Amino acid sequence: MPELASDLSFSKKIQKVKASGIRIFDNKVSTIPGIIKLTLGEPDMNTPEHVKQAAIKSIQDNDSHYAPQKGKLELRKAISKYLKQTTGIDYDPETEVVVTVGATEAINAALFALSNPGDKVAIPTPVFSLYWPVATLADADYVLMNTASDDFKLTPEKLEETIKQNPTIKAVILNYPTNPTGVEYTEDEIKALAKTIKECHLYVITDEIYSTLTYGVKHFSIASLIPERAIYISGLSKSHAMTGYRLGYVAGPAKIMAQIGKVHGLMVTTTTDSSQAAAIEALEHGLEDPEKYRAVYRKRRDFVLKQLAEMGMQAVKPEGAFYIFAKIPSKYGKDDMQFALDLAFKEKVGITPGSAFGPGGEGYVRMSYASSDENLRKAMKRIKKFLQEDK
To answer: Domain Aminotransferase class I/classII large: where (predicted)?
Structure first.
């Protein structure tokens, strides 16, 4: 195997960026024989059949050439129509929508497009651990705001205080329903945040990838209130169990979208034809598909919450997404990594340490209930056994 020549070096910035704590832990425990993994946020259900058939037909029809850089116009029109229904905003499919390789690429393109060296991005935590490494890559600094004392929600007061201490903040990132807590914001809470964001002259990058998966509450997009400041990000990975299709999108005002589209083109050229065909089908004929998934997830959520309560583990009751954020036993203090490792190696259940999601996650673990009923039943039995033997 070749070794890098001793007279060559590589990016110091990249070297400083840490890999995802979620993936690092998942890799550690994935080799344990017989482990039940509740680590990754991936639906265990299959993509709807009619959506799969649209992708197959695309391949059979030799739809195998470069698509328009911003995505097929038919798909951008479908996204625009969908966002009109869900947010009330008329996004021009020609100039205000870009189709991306998953929401991950949308986040990258957005942060690269708006950031100048010295700009700061405010990120409420605990949250999906992608945002701050990407901010670093985009030459922006970041400020992590611990929301644990506010029921894991960003308040206007916390945001205002952070901005006073960091006057070069240019944007705030929201992700809700939130990964890892499943917390959803009310309409009034979003209105209060929107007011502060406007008064403080900020962008809001709003990642609403879980917006179709809420339980007993209606999702309300902040983009509907301040569309002139909002960069709206979503996709079909969670709503239609299409993680492997890598299909996301970003929408916003034309001026910033021109820059986002430019970055997108330089990063990936365009997204895959067959994935776009599947997305068109999902948005035009599959808007009811998430209902089936939501019913299954809600049942699983209630089961896991009940089991954990009986074990004495406190957990945040999620109103969206498909995660449980649970407090670890007091004997571990805030060492969620040790708790998760002990559980994985002693009872073969993989869950993610809360510290992987930033400040406020310490002392918690995330469990994904996007797993089969059988796996969840087995996992709960194993966790119960572990807690009884570990007293």
So the answer is: 35-383
pLDDT in tens, 32-67: 999 999 998 889 999 999 999 999 999 999 999 999
Helical spans, DSSP H, in the chain: 12-16, 21-30, 49-60, 73-87, 102-114, 131-137, 156-165, 187-199, 254-268, 273-285, 289-311, 336-347, 373-389
3-state secondary structure of 121: strand
Are 47 and 278 contacting, i.e. CB atoms less than 8 angstroms apart? Answer: yes
CATH class belonging to 64-285: alpha beta
Distance between CA 30 and CA 76 in Å, rounded?
38
* Coil, strand or helix at 142: strand
- Per-position DSSP letters for 27-71, written without gaps between them: HHHHTSTTPEE--S----SPPPHHHHHHHHHHHHTT--SPPPTT-
Please report, as a single letter, which amino acid is at residue 303.
Answer: F
Spell out a b/e string for 304-314, using b for 16 or more CB atoms within 10 Å of the CB, else e: bbebbeeeebe
Asked if the model's pLDDT at residue 23 lies above 80, the reply is: no
Whether cis (ω within 30° of 0) applies to the bond prior to 126 is yes
Using an 8 Å Cβ cutoff, are 391 and 345 in contact? no
